[in-house]
Design a protein that fits this description.
This protein is mainly alpha-helical. It is built from six helices and two strands; from the N terminus they run ααβαααβα. It has one domain.
Length: 198
């Protein structure tokens, strides 16, 4: 039930990586232009027309990602608190049942069985409630990831209309990229300026 920050960051990073890959593939198929010799694709400064974004830094600095992460953690904490409260209540009732059983406090065998069945049903309902909460939390997490990914990908498309990069990569899927191609801070600053907290 516990969702840890590293797990959420990993999931977010993986989702963004996958979307960047899909985005780059889509750009390559939809924008087929005449290929130029390699010597002509470099800019006057001698740099290739590419850039990259450091996904980990983006997730740590992008206010929307931080807010979503906090929201997921709050939701998980609330769920855990609800489950713990229901669990404590059930434990109390089971302890009371055990005490009555040991003291022969039930008026009849039928009453004993009724109370046993009631507690078993309550235990099953608690397990179903836990599963329902986990499913809801997972759906909410996926929805939030999708919203954040859409936000970043749409922004990258808009950003690149002016910048005209041939490729914007993510550092998570590369072994080495010259740091001068890093546009992470610029992207984060622009994303944060655009983001309005709800």
């Amino acid at each position: 039930m516990k969702i840890s920050r590293p797990f959420i960051h990993s999931v977010l990073a993986f989702a963004i990586v996958m979307l960047f890959v899909q985005c780059n593939k889509k750009n390559n198929t939809t924008e087929k232009s005449a290929k130029t010799p390699a010597a002509q694709t470099t800019s006057i400064s001698g740099k290739l027309p590419i850039a990259y974004v450091n996904i980990d830094s983006l997730l740590q600095k992008y206010n929307y990602a931080k807010d979503l992460n906090e929201s997921l953690l709050r939701r998980a904490e609330n769920s855990r608190a609800n489950v713990n409260e229901k669990g404590r209540q059930l434990e109390k009732e089971m302890a009371e049942f055990q005490r009555k059983y040991q003291n022969n406090a039930f008026l009849s065998q039928e009453r004993l069985q009724q109370e046993q069945q009631r507690l078993m049903k309550k235990q099953q309902e608690l397990q179903e409630y836990i599963q329902r909460l986990e499913d809801e939390n997972m759906r909410e997490q996926q929805k939030m990831l999708s919203q954040m990914n859409d936000s970043i990908i749409n922004f990258i498309h808009e950003y690149n209309k002016d910048k005209k990069y041939e490729a914007i990569l993510n550092n998570a899927s590369t072994l080495y990229i010259d740091p001068s191609y890093d546009i992470t801070n610029e992207i984060v600053d622009l994303l944060n300026k655009r983001y309005v907290k709800k």
